[in-house]
Amino acid sequence: xxxxxxxxxxxxxxxxxxxxxxxxxxxxxxxxxxxxxxxxxxxxxxxxxxxxxxxxxxxxxxxxxxxxxxxxxxxxxxxxxxxxxxxxxxxxxxxxxxxxxxxxxxxxxxxxxxxxxxxxxxxxxxxxxxxxxxxxxxxxxxxxxxxxxxxxxxxxxxxxxxxxxxxxxxxxxxxxxxxxxxxxxxxxxxxxxxxxxxxxxxxxxxxxxxxxxxxxxxxxxxxxxxxxxxxxxxxxxxxxxxxxxxxxxxxxxxxxxxxxxxxxxxxxxxxxxxxxxxxxxxxxxxxxxxxxxxxxxxxxxxxxxxxxxxxxxxxxxxxxxxxxxxxxxxxxxxxxxxxxxxxxxxxxxxxxxxxxxxxxxxxxxxxxxxxxxxxxxxxxxxxxxxxxxxxxxxxxxxxxxxxxxxxxxxxxxxxxxxxxxxxxxxxxxxxxxxxxxxxxxxxxxxxxxxxxxxxxx
Length: 457
Description:
This protein is of the alpha/beta class. It has helices spanning about 20-40, 45-60, 60-70, 75-100, 135-145, 160-170, 190-195, 205-220, 240-255, 270-285, 305-320, 355, 370-380, 395-400, 435-440, and strands spanning about 1-5, 10-15, 105, 110-120, 120-125, 150-155, 180, 200-205, 225, 230-235, 265-270, 325-330, 345, 365-370, 385, 385-390, 410, 425-430, 430, 445-450. It has two domains: about 1-230 and about 430-450, Aldehyde Dehydrogenase, Chain A, domain 1, CATH 3.40.605; about 230-420, Aldehyde Dehydrogenase, Chain A, domain 2 (3-Layer(aba) Sandwich), CATH 3.40.309. It is built from 15 helices and 20 strands. The strands form five sheets. Strands 12-13-14-11-10-16-17 form a seven-stranded mixed sheet, sandwiched between helices. A six-stranded mixed sheet has the order 7-6-5-8-9-19, sandwiched between helices. Helix 3 (about 60-70) packs across helix 4, helix 3 (about 60-70) runs antiparallel to helix 6 (about 160-170) and helix 4 (about 75-100) packs parallel to helix 5 (about 135-145). The protein starts with a strand and ends in a 5-residue tail after the last strand.
């Protein structure tokens, strides 16, 4: 059985049967048949279904958001926003699908030569718990509009979200099994990847698991997109709007209770602005409210599991032992639930635990640097390269500096976030491939050259 557990109250929400071999075989067979029929539809015939998915999400928003909050602990207001973003994503691909998938005519020696986009087949999505709807739906919309199908293996601590996602597609009227959820343990992933009906894999999660997924998919010669861990730098130069930077820093670090790959985690501040930034950052963090995630006004919910909270606290303790100074927080909250207060560490150096490892929870590290060049060097001194933020009033210099930062996305004077209109993904140990935008759609298409003669002389 797979257990659903409320991390805010330490109570069991329910238990769900794990799919046996016969169930997996039936579901994969159904999914493959539905995908083949779906692929034969024109793009304009698929897009109304995407719009219906958006409508179902909005109609059931309150219920779906509550399920999300109960199962993984994020504040209800953030869960509501997550459902709304999923709906927007489906509307976006419904609007842009035909444009993104239109034939691209290319001049050559042929009478006609063009690039066309054909679906690959079933895409296996191995997804995490931290954004249990968004991570799935940001992958599903381009996969489906492109004529593919999706098989979801969700994180084992969010089975209710996984089942609710499948139900959304059923209510939207999509062919049976075109989006199918399999409640299976992680040990079943290898067999799914090796199954001939699975054409490609999309994975969001930790770097160690990503390596394993990549090895298995590579052995099977199947396309994969990996969105892995991050230790995003938030660079504040001396000429920045310090108060604005600090206000955004609070949201960038503590949204989703700090449990996001693209949360800003290392706050790299030029010495001339460091005291002002730190004071404003701490003041903003003190206004956050830790508590029952279902209650209005709560801005920091429970972490998803006590084990994750304990791992975060161990990183904080190690960093303090190494010389960091706690400005706020730093101790787990007593009582039921996996609560950890907003924590800010100052005087962190690049060799400390809080700077070297990904801190997946509400703990921020402030690193003080003496120059712009040192700020960029410290930002790049990481095995990760997912996102980065750069704060400065000098936009001409900012454009030059963004090219020197090792990251899949750099946001100038703003907070790193995923957007359906822009490609999303990382470099280095943060993975490869892109989601979202037209590039994310093309990741799971067969990009085919069609050459028609006779050749022209």
